[in-house]
Design brief:
CATH superfamily of the largest domain: GAF domain
Number of domains: 2
Shape: elongated
Strand content: 5-15%
Number of strands: 6
Structural class: alpha+beta
Strand order of the largest sheet: 2-1-6-5-3-4
Order of helices and strands: HHEEHHEEEEHHHHH
Helix content: 40-55%
CATH class of the largest domain: Alpha Beta
CATH architecture of the largest domain: 2-Layer Sandwich
CATH topology of the largest domain: Beta-Lactamase
């Protein structure tokens, strides 16, 4: 990914260490040491650009299904309604863009919304990620081929073309930090069967489908998923998937 021109440009901005509107340098996001800390930093970015909703997502392992797995959002530790809509359906076109480009995306599906999104020439106009919203989506990449998406939505987003570049740099730094977060007390003991159920969940399979594929009862499949959610100290299954991806437990 480092060969993509837009990625190199963002990395150069990180190295330059220019200060943001919120008074922190882009590189400081790499000092994030916990998910709550990452949420606070994402909230700072949202405040800087006037966004009311945000979310950070990992690209799921299945290119065909095109799933985005939530890391966290503006309702953390709960899950925002917008996040459920983003994660609840396959988005192969969007995932393909994330895997192959770092060009930001913009959309507006609000009648008469006073936004500056149309002036951001570097961002590509796209179909709404969530219907009835306006927002920006920043593809982000980290080591070992990990990629994801930082999404900001709101009717009053205000950002200059130069500011767009700086915000993208901060998203890159934040995503890199989040992918490096590890459990302080070591990895929990998770059985092979539990990981199989979690991996299939990451690929978009329902409990019924998982049970059929693994020749289990639906109750047993759900119990395995409940176990992994608890062992990973996650708030729900999708949060467990995101943590397992970050920890390298599943691919």
């Amino acid at each position: 990914m480092s060969g993509i021109p837009e990625v190199r440009a963002v990395q150069q901005t990180l190295s330059a260490g220019r200060r943001t509107l919120f008074g922190i340098t882009p590189g400081s996001e790499t000092r994030t040491t916990s998910i709550p800390d990452a949420v606070r930093r994402a909230r700072w970015i949202a405040v800087d650009i006037g966004a009311s909703v945000f979310g950070l997502y990992l690209v799921g392992p299945s290119a065909e299904r095109g799933l985005l797995v939530p890391c966290f959002d503006s309702s953390y530790p709960s899950t925002a309604a917008e996040t459920r809509l983003v994660a609840g359906q396959g988005r192969p076109g969007l995932v393909k863009h994330i895997r192959t480009s770092s060009v930001p995306l913009r959309w507006s599906d609000l009648d008469g919304a006073d936004t500056c999104l149309g002036k951001l020439d570097w961002a590509v106009a796209t179909e709404p990620v969530v219907e009835g919203t306006a927002g920006l989506a920043f593809p982000v990449h980290a080591e070992h081929g990990q990629c994801g998406l930082a999404i900001f939505m709101g009717s009053a987003i205000a950002l200059s073309p130069a500011g767009l570049f700086d915000i993208h740099a901060r998203c890159f730094s934040l995503f890199e930090a989040v992918t490096r977060i590890r459990a302080v007390d070591g990895l929990p003991s998770i059985s092979k069967r539990e990981l199989e159920c979690l991996r299939l969940t990451a690929n978009g399979y329902t409990s019924d489908e998982i049970a059929r594929l693994l020749k289990l009862s639906v109750h047993t499949a759900n119990q395995y998923l409940t176990n992994t959610t608890q062992k990973l100290d996650a708030v729900n299954r999708m949060h467990a998937v995101a943590k397992a991806l970050r920890l390298g437990l599943i691919e």
